[in-house]
Amino acid sequence: MIEFKLEGEFIPLIQLLKATGLVQSGGEAQTVVEDGLIKYNGQVDHRKRLKVRVGDVVDFMGQQIKVI
């Protein structure tokens, strides 16, 4: 599990994927979200501009990101 320390109120999902190194670019992040490869708090989510906040968990390709 990757623990990501949030600075501020939220981080957009696409930025979170880039910041944790799970994707190489914003374009790749948009593609994986559109293709339904992201689970947000246990549910598949297709929102590219999703605001991820403290306590949320994002699953991608067997990796979990917990926002702290």
Explained architecture:
The protein has 68 residues and is of the alpha+beta class. The chain is 24% helix and 31% strand. It has two helices and seven strands; from the N terminus they run E-E-H-H-E-E-E-E-E. It has helices spanning 13-19, 26-34, and strands spanning 2-4, 11-12, 38-40, 43-44, 51-52, 57-60, 63-67. Strands 1-7-6-3-4 form a five-stranded mixed sheet, with no helix packed on it. The protein has a two-stranded antiparallel ribbon with strand order 2-5. The relative contact order is 0.31. The mean pLDDT is 95.
Overall, the morphology is: globular
H/E series, N to C? EEHHEEEEE
Give the total of beta strands. 7
Give the biggest beta sheet.
Answer: 5 strands, mixed
Helical coverage, percent range: 10-25%
Mean pLDDT across all residues, rounded?
A: 95
Low-confidence stretches: none
Rg computed from alpha carbons, rounded to a whole number of angstroms: 10 Å
With helices defined by DSSP (H or I, 4 residues minimum), what is the helix count? Answer: 2
Across the major sheet, the strand order is 1-7-6-3-4
Taking the alpha carbons of the first and last residues, their distance comes to 12 Å
Q: How much beta, percentage-wise?
A: 25-35%
Helix-strand makeup class: alpha+beta
